[in-house]
Every structure is written in C-alpha cells, then in structure tokens.
Amino acid sequence: MLSKFFPHISKKPLSERVKSRDAFIYLDRVMWSFGWTEPENKRWVLPYKLWFAFVNIVMLILLPISMSIEYLHRFKTFSAGEFLSSLEIGVNIYGSSFKCAFTMIGFKKRQEAKVLLDQLDKRCVRDEERSTVHRYVAMGNFFDILYHIFYSSFVVMNFPYFLLERRHAWRMYFPYIDPEKQFFISSIAECFLMTEAIYMDLCTDVCPLISMLMARCHISLLKQRLRNLRSEPGRTEDEYLEELTECIRDHRLILDYVDALRPVFSGTIFVQFLLIGTVLGLSMINLMFFSTFWTGVATCLFMFDVSMETFPFCYLCNMIIDDCQEMADSLFQSDWTSADRRYKSTLVYFLHNLQQPITLTADGEAGIFCGHDN
Asked: What are the backbone angles phi and psi of residue 7, rounded to the nearest 5°?
C-alpha cells in the first residue's frame, strides 16, 4: 500500500540501476525543503540561502525562545500536566536545535561519504551483490517513511484532542496574538511549527541510521567476498593476490566512509544521549500522575518516538561490531593454507586490521552500542 505513494521503499528489480546513495532519496528531499542541502541550479543559490536563513532562524532559534517566554509570561495559567507536557517538548526542542546545527555543519562530510559509496558500488558487479544493494536501499527509504509515520502520529494524536478541549497543545508564545481571543489562529500556528520541528528532528535521527545501514550493506558484501577468496580453481597466484588486494581496498573505503561521518554524528548522538534521560523522566512523571487517557496515549507515543532517536542506531552499531568480527572469521576460514608466501603475509596484515571493530563515539568519548559487553 505504502509503495504506491513511496515507490523507493520497494526493492527495485536488477534491470533498474540503483546506487547506494539512493537510500537517502526521501531524506534528502526533506532536508532540501529546510535549506540544508544545495540547489541543483546555481542561479537559485541566493534565494535558497535566504530561505535557509529564514526557516532555521524561526525553527531553531525563535521557536525554543517562544516556548521559554510562554513559561515566563503565563506561568500561572499552566496546570501541572500542561506544564510537564510543554516542558518535555521544550527540552527536546532545545536539544533538537543543536542536533540540527550539527547535521547542517556536516553537509560536506556527508557528500564526501556519498562519493565513497559510489566507489564501493563499482565493486558490485554480480547479481547477488547488486540485489543486496537494492534491498538495503529500499530498507533505508522505508525507515525514513516509517519515522515520518511515527513522528507525525504524535502531532495527530495531540492536536485534535486539545483543539476540541479548546486548550493549547504546546503553549507557544506569539507576539500580537491573544491565545484566548484568537484561539484557532494560535493553535494552527502551533500545529504547523510543531510539525516542522519534528520533521527537522526526524532528519537528524534518520540520517545516522541510514548512513550506517549502508555501511553495513557494504560490510556484508565484503564479508561474502572474503568467504569466496581462492574458491575459483584454475587461477594464478597473482590473480588470487589481486583479489585479496581488492578486498583490502574495499575495507579501506568502508573505513574512510565511517571516518567521514564520525564527526558529523558524534555531536548529534551525544545530544541525544543527554536528552533521553531528562525527557523520558519528565514524560514518566506526567504519565503517572497528571495524564488523562488521551493525553496518556499521546505521552506514550512521544516516549516511543524519543526512544526511536537512539535505540535503532545503537542497535545497528552493535550489529556492525559483530560484523567486523565475522569479517575476520571469514578471512581466516578462507582457503589460504595452500597459498604462496606473498599471499599469506598480505592476509596476516589484513587480518590484523579486520580485528579492529568499526565503532562510533558520542562526542569522542562514549561508545555507541546497546549493551556493556563490547
């Protein structure tokens, strides 16, 4: 059903040309709408930069300030539940502003990473390898749409309920607008700004996930190539050595890809780690003591969305660490015992490098994974 509206979430047939960078199609479109990329036509550079400045000043600077002013301006009108609901969103929006800034600053690094993906794609000549790339590309686009559904559901659950109750869902301050006399105008403005805010936040959460998903795609392909080393009889030792050398180049490209993205995602994930405890704590207090049934459902959905900011990415990082160990095992278990001295010495060097896991850190300090056993 969804594939009728979003065709890129379905795996394309091998007759169609698909690149690894196609996993970012839907994400790049949303980022483009916020001014976070570059216009294809250079004559639109100035209007695009003006649009970028307007959107991001409003969303990343004025919106958090608006919520803070509302606390000062009309604090006595808040009920306990309204205050906690607004505060948990406000804290998340302040954090989102920093996450968006890190993502915008990392645009050129992400473009460099996509060029490296293009180089990795050149090695995918067999149908099985191309099919794997097609599957991961579809998965990346599907994750983007799935996040849109989950994040949008939070607004859809909140806004109609508070509108019918004639209350403001998020309590933002708008100059020259009386929130009581001009209730519908202020409510619609709140809904629009909150929708834009969650889509910006979504970009900062989905971008690391899809990026590392494509890293895992090419790690899986390399793992299979390592298993197949020296499996074709009749080839010369020089050809076997060249095959091993190509795998070493693939591994180097994967490392360069992750290194290009590491500074981009380090700050983003660090902010997420700082936020998740505070936001979930406020949400739990609100849920246990001050929520009605409907606001409780919306709060649970918000908590789920906040968890989605970190858990899938951390879980994926865990899987990549395991994949690195499996790559080393695959190389060691390949048919190398009858190889010549050059091949064996190259293999030992490569095996040593493969045993170093590919990891990401939050702000260069905290390792990113789900458990504590790595």
From this structure: -65, -25
Minimum mean pLDDT among 71-80, 123-132, 250-259: which range?
71-80
* Both tokens assigned to 249: 């180049």
- What's the distance, CA 91 to chain centroid? 20
**Helix runs in the chain, H state only:** 2-5, 25-33, 45-57, 63-73, 80-105, 107-121, 127-164, 183-227, 237-289, 293-308, 311-332, 341-354
The amino acid occupying position 190 is E
Burial letters 56-93, b for 16+ CB under 10 A, else e = beebbeebbebbeebeeeeeeebeebbbbbbbbbbbbb
- CA distances in angstroms from 170 to 130, 193, 374, listed in the order given: 47, 10, 40
> Which residues, other chains included, contact 272 with Cβ-Cβ below 8 Å and sequence gap of 6+?
95, 99, 205, 309, 310, 362
Residue 3 CA to residue 10 CA, distance in Å, equals 6
Would you say the pTM of this structure is higher than 0.70?
Answer: yes
Roughly what angle, to the nearest 10 degrees, separates helices 80-105 and 107-121? Answer: 60
Lowest mean pLDDT among 62-66, 166-170, 201-205, 308-312: 166-170
Domain parsing of the chain, residue ranges: 26-367
- Alpha-helical segments (H) within 34-126: 45-57, 63-73, 80-105, 107-121
C-alpha 333/C-alpha 358 separation (Å) is: 21
Closest CA to 316 of 240, 217, 247: 217
CA separation for the pair 72, 63 (Å, rounded): 15
